[in-house]
Amino acid sequence: MMANVLTPKPDHVPDHLVVDHDYVDLAGMAELGVYAASKRLHDGPDIIWTQRHGGHWLVTRAEDVKFVQENYAIFSHEEFMIPRLLNPFKVVPLSVDPPNHARYRAVLNPAFAPSKIAKMRGDAKVLTIELIEQIRPKGRCEFVSEFARIMPVAMFLRIVDLPLDRREEFVEWGLAIMSSYDPDERMKANMRVREYLKTVLDEREGGEGEDLLTRVANWRRNPRFESDEETLSMATLLFVGGLDTVASSLSYITHYLAQHPEQQARLRKDKDIIPKAAEEFLRRFGLSNTGRILTRDFEYKGVLFKKDDMIMVPNNLSGIDDRAYPNPLVVDFDRGVGPMDHNTFGNGPHKCIGAGLARAEIQVFLDEFVGRMPEFRLDPDQVNVEHCGSVPGFDELHLRWD
Question: At 380, is the secondary structure helix, strand, or coil?
Fold first, then answer.
């Protein structure tokens, strides 16, 4: 596997910027957790180079994450996986820079309009209450499988009108793509998803349904349509993106709250604090670790990047930068962090299209799950399993309550 092969240091990389950092097999994660283990990079240079995963740069500070995210003309999104061998197909619109990026976003944007989000918020509330009624009498749960990979995934499946009874199978497919760092395995996982989605798109082309996959299928009839690869790529991106990120966010929020009963109590007592609390959680638990590729030689903060260098943009480090946020590991509902005060959803044209829905689902969770459940805590008899990678998260998170 490429992660275990140390790529020789290029001549333009100074020795003092070389750090042995593996974003998938993160040193210290088992003892410290993803965020505290990652934060140790703040003890070193703002910009580092690692020999892992084909060799790549990594910015560690919030201001630099934002700079890279905004400047797509220099730091292109055309390659966003590290190592780049993990990207067997062009992922539309994620790996398309402006101006072409806009035409694909125009296909997807209407599905995430405020009016649509408002309806989905109501659906998420109903589903959340149903799940709570199922798990509350048990006195314990494995949160990831019994809630985190049900509520947000079911919401996504409604948006694309895919069968809810195949939820577990779809999650397995999506995780096979997201969690595999072997190019051959990822290719096989991609092909399975693409084969299924091609059938769905063929069936829905020309249809009048309001679901998102019908909108994608009907792009084939747009005068600017170029090839089936466009629609298949858009569909695959939606499929993978809808199955993992909010589940990870909810798991980190729950893991934190399970250790802070006073924060649970405040959320139950003061519902008005929920929007601010949700934003603070988004800041504290930024997720994605994505790459960019240099379009030309470029000097920044005294570091010379060369054309075709890869650079990682770690949102999980951005939100815990003590230069930007005092006591960043502390969740402070009164911090006053707003939607524009963190980089969790990205910046510039590639900002996450599902940000509004993610916020709504997190707010519903803080209102209904925290509000309706008894005070919950980590189960001392169970081991919680965490992973890092392009989307950090929990594989298992065990809770108990009285």
Answer: coil
